[in-house]
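name: query_chain
kind: protein
chains: 1
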Amino acid sequence: MPQNRPPAQKSMKVAAREAMKGDAIPSDFGLLPGTFVMPSRLRRPSIIRSARLRLQLEWHRLKTRVIDFGGVIYYKWGIAKKPNPRPKLALRNTGRIAQALYTQMYTAFAEPRRESGDLALLRKTCSDGLFASFQSRIASRPKNQKLRWTLHQYTRTPRVVSHRAVVLPMVKGAALRQAIVTVHSRQSLTHLKAGEEMTSGTGEVKEVKEYVVVQRRMWKEHEEPWMVWGTTEESDWPSTSPD
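structure:
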């Protein structure tokens, strides 16, 4: 599958400062600093051989979850003021929303009826950096080549592994919610020649696991729809350890 990790983004302060100079509202503030994705079981320190390191990891996960939850609660109650409505968190729906956006994003990227994909839908679904990345890949496709992305099935229930919210600096009534959702699926990407002929060596069904980053902005105390920022990886440990 095509990779969709955007290049390094500007810091939140820089992006917010630039937004104040004009009417443009940035959608890319990067992956929120301090984001932690728990390593999978095989990548965690052994509780037998490295008990101290494993306990540090579990403590860091617990502490991060508490801090992150506090940020999400403040996002709901501390930013929007009356008469503007407070945002509805709908935390149980986050995984389902991320999965739906994931399907929408790849379907638009590999729209078989158009060589250029569905740019309008990608623009609606993706943040600025991710949209630019997809746009570049579409522009570099060979002439008369089309793609068809097929989702055969989701193999597990989507799981939220990080959910954070921060106030955007220097912009009143602005904040950002960002969630990371593990998406497991069986999917294929087929290259089509003119006449809908399948290119040999493509279309193989693969098991794919991705950490999909979705985000939702609040701007001037009004919440906007969810969109996809990109994907990320599990956190390295102990490199993310505060020690």
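note: The helical segments are 12-19, 51-77, 94-109, 119-125, 128-139.
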